[in-house]
Amino acid sequence: MSEDNRLIAIYLQDSFLTMQRFERKHDVSAGGRDLSGRTPLSRAAECGHEAIVSLLLSRNDVDPDYEDTNGRTPLSYAAVSGHLTIAKLLLQSGRVYAESEDEYGRTPLSRAAEGGHKELLEMLLESGAKLESKDRDHRTPLSWAAAENDHGAVVALLLELGAAIESKDREERTPLSWAAMKGRGAVVTLLLERGANIESEDKHSRTPLSWAARKEQEATFARGLES
């Protein structure tokens, strides 16, 4: 057995003993799947095991774009976890689709935006990911970035690239609404500085300001409007 195959065998056996979720015991193989439809490559991509990912990608019996039962690919897991090198390896293989959608309609770009992974997001965009992709709830990467990150770097990048600041989801909530609802003060300030509409109403007639009041962030809005 070659050294590469030995390392893969050790990883597979360790994964099997740890998870105990493979469909069949004899399915402990490089292309095997657990009960969630996840492959060893999917698990390795999520956990950041670069060497194992590289070895698995060199094999013909491994599908790097295989979707699990939730429709998620190894790239999707690498994106949300912020594993830049692994995402690069997957994309450079030429066998993965940067715009793959999971069962919720979310793309790797959406996941990277949610996680606040700026460099990974830039790489996905360079690889053909769509800036304005919408999931099943009509949320864009900007909507996810505004809701889940308070540092603003990803939000600023998306806006600089032309992301629609007033995009609305199924509930007609804008990125500013989400930032206010989640208490993301720095992002609220940034969006207001970029001209986001403070009076935009969702389906329930709630505005970003009303969400801010609920989160006791009126002062943040006042500063943003003054700037």
UniProtKB/TrEMBL annotation:
Q: What PANTHER family does the record point to?
A: ANK_REP_REGION DOMAIN-CONTAINING PROTEIN, ANKYRIN-1-LIKE-RELATED
Where are the ANK-type repeats located? 36-60, 70-94, 104-136, 137-170, 171-203
Provide this UniProt record's keywords sorted from A to Z.
ANK repeat, Repeat
The record's listing under SMART domains reads: ANK
Q: This chain belongs to which protein, by name?
A: DNA, SC003
GO cellular component annotations of the record: nucleus
